[in-house]
Structure formats: C-alpha cells, structure tokens
Specification:
CATH topology of the largest domain: Immunoglobulin-like
CATH superfamily of the largest domain: Carboxypeptidase-like, regulatory domain
CATH class of the largest domain: Mainly Beta
Number of domains: 5
C-alpha cells in the first residue's frame, strides 16, 4: 500500500524529481537506511558531484531540484550486491537516466544479497570440531584472504559477504583442548590449492557442503625477548598465507605466540606511534626461541627522476604474507617507512607514467612465494639501516587509448569501459586493470599508459574485467608504443 501511495505521489511531483524505493530482491521487503547515489554522466553539463541520500523506514528515497542532464542511479548496502536502475545482471551497471525540466521518475531498486559459504569442520571420526577458524580465498593465485568464519559448537561455519566468484576454503592452525594440533588444510582434504575444491558462490543463497577434515599435526610456539633502543610498547604482527595475528609486548619484556603451523612466517614490529620498526622472516617447524629487535626508524628520502610535471601521490601497502594490509598514502619527499616488504604505487600527470619504484639495493626475492601480486612495485625496506632512499622513475612518454562506444550505431553515454593490461609487468605499472565511463557523446580516454598490449571492453553487464570475461566477450586487443595515441571504436557488448 505504501509503495502504491509513493507512486501516486510521484506522478504529482514537480519536474526534475527522482523518487523510488529500495527493496530486497528475494522477499520484496523494503530496505531502510540504504545509501542511494545519483551520479552525473561526464560531459552532461552538470557539475561533477554525486548526490547521496539514505532510504527511509519504508525504503523510500527522493532527489529533487536536479539539473537537466544524464545520470546514473545506484544503491549500496552492507551485505548486498550494488544495484542500479536499468541493471540487466546482478553484477552489472545501470543505464543512464535523462532528467529534464519535464521529467519525473519513480525507480524501484532491488538488491541481491551477497553470497556465503557454509560447511562443517570434521575430526577423524566425522564429528564436528568447534571454534576452528576457516578462511575463504578467491580461487586464484596469489592467495588473498577474502573473508573468514569460525565453526560453532556443531563444527558448522558460515563465511558471509562474498562476491560472485569461485573460492577455496581452508582451516587455520588450531589447537584442541587436549593439546592436539590441527594443521591448515584446504577442503575437503588438500594441502595445496591445486588439489582443493573450488566452490562457486551465487547471490541470495548459501553455497553448502564446503566441508573440511583438517589433518592432525604438531604446532609450535614462538617466544623470546623484545630488544629496543628505548622504552615503549611494541606491536607485533605475525603473518602467513593462512593467518595474520597481532599481539602486543613491551621493550625489555618477552612475547609468546602459540599454535603456529610449520610454515614460513613474516614478523613485523613497530612502536605504536610508528617511529620505530623491526622485521624478521622465519621458517617455524618446532618450538623456537627468537629475539626480536625494534629500533627508531630514520627518515627515508623519496626521489623522483626526472622531475614530475605534477605533484606525485605515492601509496604503499605492507605486503605481508596474508595479503590483508590496507593501503596508505606516503608523504613526499621524506617519509618514515617501517622495515619489511611493501608494494608501492604512484599517481602522476596524464602524460606521464611510473616506470619503476625501487629501494636502494634492489628488490629482495622471497623464494617461498613464487607468484607475486601484480598490483604494485615490490620494495623491501632494510631493517636497522639509517635512513634510505626510494627512487620513483617516471617516463614522459605515456601512451593514450581513446575512442567512442556505440550501441545500435549511436554513441552510448554512461557506459563502463574496461582496460586489461595483458602482461603482469604492465598491470603492475598501471596499478591493475583500469575502468572509466563514457561521456555524454559516448567518448572515453585512458591516459598515462605504459607501452604494451591491452584488451579493451565496453559493457554494462560486469563490474570488473578478468581474462575469462575478455575471452567470453572477444574483447579487442590493442598495442601501443611509447607516446602513441590510439583511437578505437567499440561496440557495446551485452552478455547473453
């Protein structure tokens, strides 16, 4: 009844108003307090900003006083897939809305719930084991933890908030009440990803029966003294491919970390204010005593060659083995950066690209981690060295790919265009795949590109590009050289 009243009211509203309601797809129930965005299409003559409101208690929302133009109407809510007006697929984008002085629109936005994986952690007799942590990884290398859950009193776990994809599940090291250790294990009984079952996650449903039977084995305890150059509390982070744990200690004191599986670990240490750090790499196979050292961190100098035409924005993510660390912006030209493995990226002007980022001494290899992520430049900051230097090498000969997207022989505005660098090295320079939106005339441009081979695709039916999607859609392949500008006419691809 309320939705009917809203529809009737919307027809009597003055021009330039968009109203609507946000509903759960499966049940049709209103979703209150849900974020709704109205985004102008580039080049539509509207000042580029997003209008944002939250839906009311009955799921209703309203935008008024909207300038004439072309817009995308989108919504998002925790635990749900993003949705948009005119969306064809749950993983796709919406179609633009034309707003004029005579327009009035009522939009119904339906959200699909994100997927989940459920299963049971069994012991050797097929009885559920409680309190075991289970992690989910996207079924691709390198391993990156997507989400995690813990088994209940029946041994049943549920991992929520998963995007539509295939996943591996794996238990973490766990110690039972009698002291028996359980080793990390992929489901159902695999030691390596290649032998594990990949579980396909779908929206609005749980993916069941992702059962795991972890193998008993010996777990270790790592302990020792903490040595510092001053009195302070110390944050200790230990990471492996299955876990990332943070404990606290104090200078001059001791630490102890138990229930560790026999694998490689990286340990980073820091003072709470970031003024000191330490780093250690260990293969742990049995109980070990290992002293940890923290020293005050000296200032690192960030050098750019040649001089950039615009200020450089430098970003870094601590590349611990779990892949769970957030990205942070690094001030230039000087910064305090903790020791250990990092991934650096940088943003420069549109006619330049970052060819390399390297610390003094070059890259430090990690033989136990053969597959490196392509999202940034690997940089190792040596522990206990006074100062240091990171060099950002910039090229002035950036390439550019531009063009127009057509649909039914007409320019298609507001269409996502995806760019996939074919080689891993190129993806590292670009910071991964690129995405942009066509303007009011259907035009797009990707600037600041290194030379190389790219696949390009225009579609509203996906939110990210992958090699599999590029093959399915028969995405065009373009090759650019340094300083070259390539124009491409694309046809909007619609998934079958």
């Amino acid at each position: 009844m309320r939705i009917t009243l809203l529809l009737a009211a919307s027809l009597a509203m003055p021009a330039g108003v968009i109203q609507g309601v946000v509903l759960e797809w499966a049940s049709g129930k209103p979703l209150s307090r849900t974020i709704v965005n109205l985004q102008p299409v580039p080049g539509s003559g509207v000042k580029l900003r997003n209008w944002q409101v939250r839906s009311g208690r009955s799921g209703q929302f309203s935008f008024s006083g909207i300038p004439d133009g072309l817009y995308l109407l989108q919504t998002q809510r925790e635990g749900f897939l993003p949705a948009a007006f005119g969306q064809r697929r749950p993983t796709g984008h919406g179609h633009p809305i034309t707003v004029s002085k005579d327009s009035a629109l009522f939009a119904e936005l339906r959200l699909h719930r994100m997927g989940a994986i459920t299963g049971t952690v069994f012991d050797e007799n097929g009885v559920g084991i409680p309190r075991v942590k289970v992690v989910a990884y996207r079924a691709r290398l390198p391993l990156r933890i997507a989400s995690e859950g813990t088994s209940d009193d029946r041994g049943i776990y549920r991992i929520t908030g998963l995007e539509l994809a295939k996943y591996w599940v794996r238990t973490t090291a766990h110690q039972l009440d009698d002291g028996t250790g359980l080793l990390p294990q992929f489901g159902p009984e695999a030691h390596e990803p290649r032998d594990a079952i990949a579980h396909e996650v779908r929206f609005d449903n749980d993916t069941p029966d992702a059962n795991i039977r972890p193998e008993p084995g010996n777990l270790a305890t790592l302990s020792g003294n903490i040595v510092c150059d001053r009195q302070s509390a110390v944050d200790i982070v230990i990471s492996s491919e299955t876990m990332r744990k943070k404990v606290t200690g104090a200078c001059g004191g001791t630490y102890s970390i138990s229930a560790l599986a026999p694998v490689f670990y990286e340990i980073t240490l820091s003072y709470p204010d970031g003024s000191g750090s330490g780093f250690t790499e260990l293969q742990i196979s049995q109980n070990m005593q290992q002293g940890l050292q923290v020293v005050s961190t000296s200032t690192m100098f960030i050098e750019t060659r040649p001089a950039p035409r615009m200020p450089v924005k430098l970003f870094a993510r601590r590349d611990d083995l779990s892949g769970a660390s957030p990205t942070q912006q690094i001030p230039t030209p000087t910064a305090i950066v903790g020791s250990g493995h990092w991934e650096f990226t940088a943003q420069v002007g549109p006619t330049q690209y970052v060819a390399n980022i390297q610390a003094e001494g070059g890259e430090r290899r990690r033989p136990w981690r053969a597959v490196r992520p392509p999202e940034g430049f690997p940089v190792f900051v040596e522990p206990f060295r006074g100062g240091g230097r990171v060099r950002v090498t910039i090229s002035d000969r950036a390439a550019q790919i531009g063009g127009v997207v057509n649909r039914d022989a007409k320019p298609a505005p507001g269409v996502p265009v995806f760019l996939w660098p074919v080689k891993e090295e190129t993806r590292r320079i670009t910071g991964g795949p690129r995405e942009t939106l066509t303007d009011i005339e259907g035009r797009f441009v990707f600037s600041g590109l290194p030379p190389g081979e790219y696949r390009i695709l225009a579609t509203m039916d996906a939110r990210e590009i992958t090699p599999e999607l590029a093959e399915e859609a028969q995405a065009r392949t373009l090759t650019v050289t340094e300083g070259q500008t390539v124009q491409a006419a694309l046809t909007l691809w619609e998934a079958p």
